[in-house]
Amino acid sequence: MQAQDIIYPTDAGLYCAPGDFFIDPLVPVARALITHGHADHARAGHGAVLATRQTLEIMAIRYGEDFTAARQVAEGKVRIGGVTVEFYPAGHVLGSAQILVTPDNGPRILVSGDYCRTPNPVCAPWEPVPCDVFITEATFGLPVFRHPDPMGEASRLLASMAEFPDRPHLVGAYALGKAQRVIALARAAGHTGPIAIHGALKRLCDYHIEQGIDLGELVSASDPGDARLILAPPSAFASPWVQRFRDPVLSYASSWMTVRARARQRGVELPLVISDHVDWPQLTSTITELAPQEVWITHGAEDGLLRWCELAGIAARPLRLVGYEDEPE
């Protein structure tokens, strides 16, 4: 059985024929396997969902307990139709996983979802999984994207707070994963005071704390008190909410801050290059390390990675799945 007969792209997303299921489907389907809880990968309304326990709990937080008719925690090897599936940590956000699909007679196919190899204090680290076909994103699949040490970026944030003690520092970070990572990095860099969070971040921050992740003292951004570091979803910066803070230092944590023109367009004074995705060196080194026979690219900067694979003598093809965001802004 050929790989392209086992898993292939459809209008509804990536479909596994011998298992009759979709992986991170773009619309409600009868059976879905979900890599992680970001909204462009984890949608409500599926008949049945298989995912890690933490991803299922995050989906319940976001969509309500009745987000699916049936749910199953992915533990060990799970048999579905004519394939066996296994979930491995992806290092992206809490609960994120890579999904290995192994048919009875055919190649081992690894669907990586979104993944990151840089150590992340708020989720389990990425694990290498041997495979014949590696299905990868290419969100930052260009040589310009080379992520600095996240601790160095956190130190830059604290240095700015020391330089401008009378100005609140507002950091834009999406609610699942990035906000908690920025908080944890700030703590590791030496910030011991309270950190204020926008209301949209509270429930997921609470969930991380429930999972044993220490985020220190968190207070509401509606009443920040002495807190001089405030986190909010990036969308809040375009709303009247931001006007309650006098002369703030606007910051944004994203790999897109590598592109300084984007920072200027958004009025970001302190760009922080902190990403939960692989950068170009990590992307190419992952392919080299796993040494798959084929590389399939779901979305992102496909052309750059296709050219690299061609030069490296690795068979590659784009899937051009529409509906996944690059790193959310």
From TrEMBL:
InterPro entries, A to Z: MBL, RibonucZ/Hydroxyglut_hydro, Xnuc_lig_assoc
UniProt keyword list: Exonuclease, Hydrolase, Ligase, Nuclease
EC class of the enzyme, as a word: hydrolase
Keyword Nuclease set for record: yes
EC number: 3.1.-.-
Entry's Gene Ontology molecular function annotations: exonuclease activity; ligase activity; RNA endonuclease activity
Name under which the protein is recorded: Ligase-associated DNA damage response exonuclease
UniProt lineage: Bacteria, Pseudomonadati, Pseudomonadota, Alphaproteobacteria, Hyphomicrobiales
